[in-house]
Amino acid sequence: MVFPLWGEQTLLTLGQSPDAARLAQQYLFGLAWGAAPALWFLAIHSFMCAVNRPEPVLWITLAAIPVNAVLVYLLMYGKLALPRSSCSERVLPRPL
Known about the structure:
Elements: H1 2-5, H2 7-13, H3 18-50, H4 55-77, H5 86-91
């Protein structure tokens, strides 16, 4: 995940505009946070399939769906004193 951390410099070198490179860098920082858990889950999935026990991976996946929904709600709308996502102001109206 070294390249996403230097994405802005790479994009500037390739001739991208500074504004687009800065926005892409913000996205890549968020992407870097998800790489380690994704690789960890892939390792568990591969191991459990190799020992013919896919059930734990199924339960992890099913448990992750509501957790993901709650986190999206909290982060998009800034509930529980969490910062509101800046992209939600342009895309989603504030709930009543």
